[in-house]
Amino acid sequence: MTEGGGHSLQRRLLVTMATGFAILLLLISALLWTYARAAANRPQDLLLAGTALSILERISAGPEGATVDLPNSAMEILSLNPIDRVQYRVFLPGGPTLTGTEGLPVPPGLAPSGAPVFFEQAFSGTVFRFVLQARQLTTAEGRQWVAVQVGQTVEARDAEQRSFFVAGLIGLAGLSLIGLGFVWVAIRTSLAPLRQVAADLAQREPADLGAVGGAPPREIRGLFDAINGFIARLSRSRALTETFIADVAHQTRTSLSALQGHLSLAVDAETPEQMRSRLVKADRQATRTVRLTNQLLANAMVIHRSDRSSLQPLALKPLVRDTLAQTLRDSRMRHISLSFVDEGIEPGGDIVLGDAVSIREALRNLIENAVRHGPPDNTITISLVASNEALVLSVEDAGPGIAEADLPRATERFTSLSQNSTGSGLGLSIVKAVTDGHGAELRLGRSPLGGLCVTLIFKRLLAVLLLALWPLVSGGGAARAEALVIHSATDTAAMRPLIEAFEARTPGVEVDYVEYQTLDLYRAMLREAEGPGPDLVISSAMDLQVDLVNRGLARRLQLPFQTESPSWAVWRSELFGFTFEPAVIVYDTRAISREELPASHRDLATFVRENEDRFRGRIGTYDIAQSGIGYLFASQDGLQGPQMLRLFEVLGRADLKTYCCTSQMVEATARGELAFAFNTIGSYAAAQIEAEPHLGLHFFDDYNLVMTRTAFVPAAARQPEVAALFIAFLLSREGQGIIAEQTPLIPLSPEQAIPPPIGPEMRARSGTFLPIRLTPGLLTYLDALKQRDFLSAWEASLGR
């Protein structure tokens, strides 16, 4: 058969597959991926451009130069993308940043322009897509450019690109079916020689181990050669097996025939002495037959186990000691000196890849050979020595040994090297099979004791590595209880039932709960952004929590079981709300009757203005400069319309008093110092007024803001898995039930029954609650300029 003979199967397959797949899949898939990226960028870029334009429109020139009043609509536009984090800044090209995040990247050489410019850059370890747009402004210093840069992470774009690409691939699947038809035809045509081989092998008799004939193509000639090579090896293996079976049959037949002959002679004996002599010979022959059978079975077992590749990490020293202990129970060992020596083996240094059963059988055969062929007072020494790469197991005896010329034949089956030997010739053959199956080396030589020295050399494993991995494999024993560190702006008493329930359901976990005020917690997290901190952060200041998550300080979670939170209470699978807590008015029924309470925020301004002297110094609310939740409620009220600004002015003229927290406002109202307190947290207020029968709760008919306490796992958390379990527990049916029944908080789940006094009031106003959504829109009033102007307006309204 020449090299050029036959057709090219590979060429036929490649031509057909190239026509059906190369152009369709490679080129179209590449074009589809590029198109999918462009399609994913288009709607997201419109959001960025719309945000930049809305900010540009609010840039103006003031006495101190350019300034901006960040519109809430800008962040609300970005909130249409519920996945990505955002960054922005307003700056003078080549000058300072007016507001926003300093240090946002800009491509070198990019000049300010009135047209939006889009680009992607890495910032804080994450890829952002930015838009940069500028406008010229007339200031006291003349015309100057003011630029706006807005960016989003690209997670949503990547997800949309993959979605578009997969949808396009479904269309390609139909075309691929056509290509598969071409491939099928090509394979059917090209693989005809293989079908001929299959038909040839199927028609053969079991005993036919001849080579497969034919003239295969070049591409499958190697397959033909491999099949014929396998058949040749199978033929040799079969011949060896038949030879072994014949040898076994011969040895067994000979041994049994000899046994039968001795017994027949015993039957024909004429005297008791003659019968006894012949029975003794029969007994010896029976012992040899039993030993032969055992060794035949042992030889088959060793070969079988080596074929199964049942090698595992194994310590040799204890295995040798156990084998010797079992051997010493044999009565034949009473007058034999048996010793074991191990040198230079450290703990864990005797590990090899081995099969305990096979190695034990090899060692038994070596000792049995030494006992059988040596003198009655034989000396047998077993040693185990470690080197850098190997473990050397040696068995030495003081017997006759084996002549130098006979050593090469000593490991052959059924080979007897001495006329006086009564062995089967299988002992060293079994040892050889064991070493071959372990990839070990077998050496035969002269022992210093005068007899045979058999040496088995095994390759060592890296024992140190095994010992290091053992705690991971075995489970590491009893784990020490670890603390789950929670930093929270929620009262400890309110969270205690949840903490105790979680600890009871999570053995080995202890919760270390640290309480903060909302602003103190926010500042602490900013300080700990680069170092170790808590495992979980809980706060009612939703805007501050969104800011921390938007800075990349949170870890994305895959909760261990499904939780159904409303969309407004989850952001990026990183920030999770778990309560539903409306803002409420707490009033003193001795100072205000229920009937005269205003029905809306607009009516509240009118009510206070008409009763200004009556309520002077007797209205309370949060000090929004010091309270994160107070600032959140005030800024969200400011978004509801211009009437809130008038309300703040009216409250200021009535000498509004400010407090740090709900508890102080409720206590002041209970003492009669306040007639009512505005924007208190409903859950805390409801819990406190249960002991004060002259206090009441009031909701408005126009809207009632609702905040949710939120939790996230910091990126640097030491126990993120346990922290995720705690969040999942808070959102579970069980956790929500504990919130409803055992804490003053109000559960997020609408299925839970809310007890009085706040429950009936909430059910009566069920359509008036306005949840504050977890979106980047909450960042608007955290803008430095926006916050400064808002607090200045607040202070001015209070006459401070």
Explain what the structure shows.
- Its EC number is 2.7.13.3.
- It catalyses: ATP + protein L-histidine = ADP + protein N-phospho-L-histidine.
- Keywords: Kinase, Membrane, Phosphoprotein, Transferase, Transmembrane, Transmembrane helix.
- By secondary structure, the protein is an alpha+beta fold.
- It contains 22 helices and 27 strands.
- Strands 20, 21, 22, 23, 24, 25 and 27 form a 7-stranded mixed sheet that branches. A 6-stranded mixed sheet has the order 16-15-17-26-19-18, sandwiched between helices. It has a 5-stranded antiparallel sheet with strand order 4-3-7-6-5.
- Helix 1 (9-56) runs antiparallel to helix 2.
* Radius of gyration, whole Å: 44 Å
Strand count: 27
The assigned structural class equals alpha+beta
Query: What fraction strand?
Result: 15-25%
Give the number of helices. 22
Tell me the span between the first and last alpha carbons: 106 Å
> Architecture of the domain at 581-707 and 767-797 in CATH?
3-Layer(aba) Sandwich
Low-confidence stretches are 462-480
Mean pLDDT: 81
Helix fraction, binned, reads 40-55%
- Gross geometry: elongated
Name the CATH superfamily assignment of the domain at 581-707 and 767-797.
Answer: Periplasmic binding protein-like II
- Strand count, sense and closure of the main sheet? 7 strands, mixed
The level 1 CATH classification of the domain at 581-707 and 767-797 is Alpha Beta
CATH topology of the domain at 581-707 and 767-797, which one? Answer: D-Maltodextrin-Binding Protein, domain 2
EC number: 2.7.13.3
Catalytic activity: ATP + protein L-histidine = ADP + protein N-phospho-L-histidine
Protein name: histidine kinase
Domain Histidine kinase: 247-462
